[in-house]
Design a protein that fits this description.
The complex is a heterodimer of chains A (486) and B (371). Chain A is of the alpha/beta class and 486 residues long. In chain A, 36% of the residues lie in helices and 24% in strands. Chain A has 2 domains: 1-103; 142-277 and 371-484, Vaccinia Virus protein VP39 (Rossmann fold, 3-Layer(aba) Sandwich), CATH 3.40.50. Helix content of chain B is 37%, strand content 11%. In chain B, the strands form 2 sheets. Chain B has a 6-stranded parallel β-sheet with strand order 3-5-6-7-8-9. In chain B, helix 2 runs parallel beside helix 10 (320-342) and helix 10 crosses helix 11. The chains are: A alpha/beta (486), B alpha/beta (371).
Chain lengths: 486, 371
Amino acid sequence: MLVDVRPTRRLRGSSPVDVSAALGPIVEALGQDTVDLSRLRVVCDWVQYKHNFRDVIDIRPIMGNASSEMGLEAAVDLRRCAGTDLSAATATALREFHHPGSADRTYLEPWTAGKDSCIWEFNSLYWQALGRWEEVSGKDYEQALPGGSSDGRNQDAARELILELFDTWDELARLSSLPEQLYVVELGVGNGGQAKTWLDEFRELALIRGVDYYQRLHYIMGDYSPHVLKLAQDAVAEHSGQVSSIVVDATDPTASLGFLRHKAFLVYISNVYDNLPTDEVASISGRTYRVEVRAYVPREGTLALAEMLSSSPDQVGAVVGKLLRLGPELLAEALLGQLPDVPSAVRFWQEAWSWLRLEERYVPLEGLDLYQICPSVTGEALRPILEDRGDLRMQVSNGAVASFVETLRLLHPYGRLHCHDLFVTDARRYDSHFCGPGKYDGSIVNWVNGALVQYIGNRRGFEVNYSPFRHREGTNITTLTAHVRE
Amino acid sequence: MTPLQGASPLPLLPTTVVGSYSVPEWLEGAKTDYYQRKISKHYLDDIHEVVTKAALKDQERAGIDVVSGGELTRDNDIDYLLVRLPGIDIPDTGKSNSYDYYDAVVRQQLPTSSRFPLSLTADYQLVRDNTDHPVKFSFTGPFSLSRKLRNEAYADSADLVRALAELLNAEAKRLVAAGATVLQLDEPLLCGYRDQVSTAIDGINTVVDGVDASWALHICYGNRYARPSWEGHYDFLFPAVMDAQVDQLVLEFARRGYEDLDLLARSGWDRGVGVGVIDVKSDEVETAETVARRIRRALRAVSPERMTINPDCGLRHLPGDVARAKLRAMAEGTAIVRSELSGVTPPSDTTAVREESAVSPEPVQEGVTQS
């Protein structure tokens, strides 16, 4: 048996975690079971997200070829061990493993790749129906952010970026190579707050500098939600002569912004990548695996949801599926007798989201080149990290990589990508930290595999750098900048 | 010599490539393994021979008239020469990826003697021995090489360019002695140094001096990682490039449009033009008719006798299937226009394309721009 205690920093300090108290009953319960202990891994994490997709103890099969099980992983959330009957929790998890169905879970999907799980449909629904969610929860999304506001509104950060841009344009103007239209793109515009801050600063700084850059500026706001774009347009109404808005899929920006290929001087993305679909891969004893997941609602959750519907538990799965297809407004119409109004449907949605869990299993990856991270990047890009780190589990950040790679295509030779997000900038962090997924209000958060993004950027001729976000203290936000390498 | 004369007899609008050919991910991996000491030089040489033969076969099957070895034995467009040049110091010869550039330094003035063979002849011979087609052999020009060197030896960087050019001149003579008839100098970095074209042209003229070959000069907007390194126009080349003692300019047009061809006409360039008709920075495969349309547009400014048909730049960054399809489209599109010019019905496989588009060939008028 191999025991991997990952949150090593928690073992020291004023209130260290009592690993032995946690592990004792778990190992004892495992010892009383029939599982092959020689092929068992016990992996202890500290899941910092209060709301997440895990139980205190999860049992995960490590598959071999032909769907046979080669080993087993017991995943432990150390943060929640205190106050839990770990022996009973372990026994329950093992029982479900040996006798699938015994825990009476409501499955919402078959086994699937992480990025294809229905949890991302929940995530999309949150952004599509954010207003409805906020009405019922009584707080804005921005209030849920650390610090209570988006870093995109930070004036100092905007000013710094704009002045760098002006310097570049001055130099190109000197060489008679500055195009007439100066394109700046923002992907994921939220409520337009960042765009407004940025454009206000831009206009003022251009005036001070005595240049006509504001008149030549074409600021393109991109978001996948027309509703969000409308709100953002309203926020920047006074700059309407300089602004266009366009529906953009962040994971495929060239599909709608192809006309900007090699033309954008700045692409700005804030807090988008951590919210895009991702797989996870793992290297275990020299073999590479993809983590497959299966979303479910545990029995207690099913009963609670059934009560909200005044129906039997076996209807819960179908209604959740209907919610994801229709959204809360149409669901309320469709189930008028059970969910009398939209707020009731939203409360059902919030309850389902809170109970949502993921079963996991490790499935062998037969050749990294056969695994597509995104359409233009194969799994070979994972090789340097996987070969360098021994046993490792990490996010692939498929959506983020797709967005990043396709965004690079938009950049002018002197352009840059500027991105604020949660990045794992050093793969060693995966050895000691839990990096998601967690639940953030009604959305998903995963730390972005910054080491992978950096490698992929380098292999496309870009210098990719990370630095802590300088304009707010105590934040986990990292600033990624990418520009063409000499 | 006239363009590609050394490769005659050739059809009107001969098709050729700029140089590099598609490098699969696994090949770059194998090359990187070599730099990380995981495979031997012998092993890598074997791989290079096989892939070069395959590249030649692909070009021949696509219908390319003048082929190249695809530069598949090179790690990138600079280092393959820097490691061979005498007097260049490369402190660390390991690489995390074969395509990365070395940190190379010239600490003292380079030797002027011609007794330092750079072994490009072996690369040429590998190509020559494996095809019956005419061969174009390309190598990087002295200006671009100089921009990738940390210069600690020359007070005037133009002197470094000249010194590099002299070494390349000696090698060019060896290539001709080995049988090369069509040589091409690539200056991939020149577009980023618009104020130094005269220096580059001086270097080019030193390289070609006394070398009995048909010379092409390729200048594009950059193709490192399939990205342009500059966005602008070819106006920066003129008038300095008029002094270049070369037979042909090989330029990038497909990605950016053909307006700059008119610039050539206006400037009085009356030598050969290699017209880029394939966008190498896009995976989208052109149709034969698209190629034909681009050639017709180019014929407004350049007579067919002076024109060679090629991609915008090397195919290095394109997937193999895309590179093959693009070359096929280029050959087929060229065949359409050849037929139009000669009044002969094109072969059946291109007739359908032609009838579908029903576009009349543009009239050919030397040096005249039509709107």
